[in-house]
Each structure stands twice: as C-alpha cells, then as structure tokens.
Amino acid sequence: MGLIGAHVSIAGGIENAPNRGTLINANSIQIFTANQNQWFPKEPQKENYLKFKELMNLETPKLSVSHASYLLNMGSPDEKKLKMSRSAFLKELDRCDNLGINYVVFHPGSHMKTDETMCLKRIAESLNYCIENRPDLNVKILIENTAGQGTNVGYKFEHLKTILDNVDKNEKIGVCFDTQHGFASGFDIRTKKGWDSTFDEFDKIIGINNLKVFHVNDSKKECGSRVDRHASIGKGLLTLETFWCLVNDERFENLPMILETPDPTIYESEIELLKQLKGSKKP
Ligand SMILES: [Zn+2]
Ligand SMILES: [Zn+2]
Prior knowledge:
39% of the residues lie in helices and 17% in strands. It is an alpha/beta fold.
C-alpha cells in the first residue's frame, strides 16, 4: 500500500509537523516549508531544521513532501515575476535540503494569455537554472498535474512530458498526480476502466516510473470542468472505486499519497477509510 498521509500544518514551528502526522496515523506528510502566501517568508532556523529531521526519524510518517508557494510562476512571460519565482524556488529547495525533505511539488505555471508552448519551455528553463545553481541538490522536484484553471499549464500529460524533455538533468525531476486535478482536466477516473486507461496513457506519454507522489482529493467539480476544487473523500463526484484503484494499484506501492481535502479535522478517518480499501472487495 502507498504511504497514506496528509498535508499538515507547520503552525508554531516546522518541527511540529511530524507529530501532527503521527496523530492522524499518517505514513507520509506534506508541508509548506514557509508561509506560502509571501514572497519573502520568515526562514526557519537551524534548530528548527535539526528538530524536524530528528522527529521525522521518530514519528510515524516515513516520507516528507513540500508544496512550493502558490505565488510562484516558473513559466511567467513577465521577466521580473520570472526572476522572483526562480529565486524563491531556490530558497524553497534550500529549505527542503535543510529539512531532509524527499520531494518538492510545484504547480508548473501560467502562460497569462501568452503562448502555451513557450510557457512550458520557460518552466523547463527555470528548472535548468535552479538545478544548475544547486549541483548538490538532494530533494527531488515534482511537477504537479493541474486542473487547467485559468491560464495554468500542466493539465495534459503532453505538457508534463514537454517540461521533462526540456530539462537537462531529468533524473532530478518527476511528476505528482492530483486525483482532483486529473478528473477536472478530463480524466474520468471514477471506474477501474477509466483508472487503467488514464495510467496507461500516463505510462505511454510520461513513463509510469516518473510518477512519485499522489495528491488524494475528491472533487467538487465535474470531469473536464477545469476547475480546482477539492472535496473530502466520499463527499465529491469521484467514487470509492477511484480510491480503491489508487490504494490497490501495485505500481504505486510505497508512494506518498497525500490528502489535501478541505477538512483537516477528519483526516484521521479519511486515512482510515483509505487503509481499509486496501485488499478489500472493489466497492
Ligand atoms: Zn498542488
Ligand atoms: Zn488542487
């Protein structure tokens, strides 16, 4: 089974996150390494980093994921915004390595009503720039599929493939698949048949080995709506069959499967539900 977990808060200090994972029986956690709404967030201190690493060894979660700030646009057509995004991403990578984080997930970017293909190329250039500037990088960078809201790119597997193909050191990068974004972008994963055809296509276009993390979210919006609205598991338009397929898919054994659903007070029961689906009869 995957390492089922959730996005947990860093309130009161980043070192509080691993125990928050333990309290909900999470086997992996995702965090923001700093305030995600600020370009220049307060940086954690050395003692925060050390404590976080120590506690990741003691608490229940085995793997850790960071979600980069939503402010970043690594494909921005605006020179100033692009520069700010790249330098903020470098700081994100530094925090991740200081924390011993396994994966950092980011939303590829938005073309802002300019050319989509150019935007994808700029995203790859941004990644090349960051990887060149951090030759000893440990954290693996994951491009997240998007719902395709507004001018966001990344809602087609071909987009993710274009980015991967244009990164020089592509052993440093991979992909995160968000079930809500996938559904909203048009992949009908409500049935086993739809699940299989989606990941066959993923394999054909991107290569299944590049898939490293799942975001596990139900959807408030229709298939193909291209709207990014998460729902709690079982309370949206996806089915229990979707999540049964996820936890019983042998290709995804041991991958972090992170809840980003709207109500953290029920994470524990959502995690329990997902664990019970493993090995059970298809709902
Ligand atoms: Zn995301
Ligand atoms: Zn989302």
